[in-house]
## 1
Amino acid sequence: MEGGADAVFGEVYEVATSIFDELDVFEDVPELYRRVRIQLGPHRPWVYLFRSYAAVGLQRIPSGDWRRR
């Protein structure tokens, strides 16, 4: 989430940049998510960050792992 300070668990996939537009539609960019590059070890992957205003009223996932919520 934008502005968050906690670690989260996720998955990394290698995809062609030619499908970014389709992924953006699937992830509802720019309404729910924003696609940005982050530093992850020696890599700089693109990630989707959940917009903080969209999280109002949602319960925090203490583990940071959506699958283990």
## 2
Amino acid sequence: MHYRRTDIAGGTYFFTVNLAERRRTLLVDHADMLRTGNMAAGRLGKGTK
């Protein structure tokens, strides 16, 4: 697959995460960890620490 990504300052990306077992609450229970990991990955992608 080829994804197009534009590098626009202040731009926003949206993505969807779900589990194979849809009734599990794992993602909701640990939303803060997902948010922190996503922000850290974004910083790494920009070459900052």
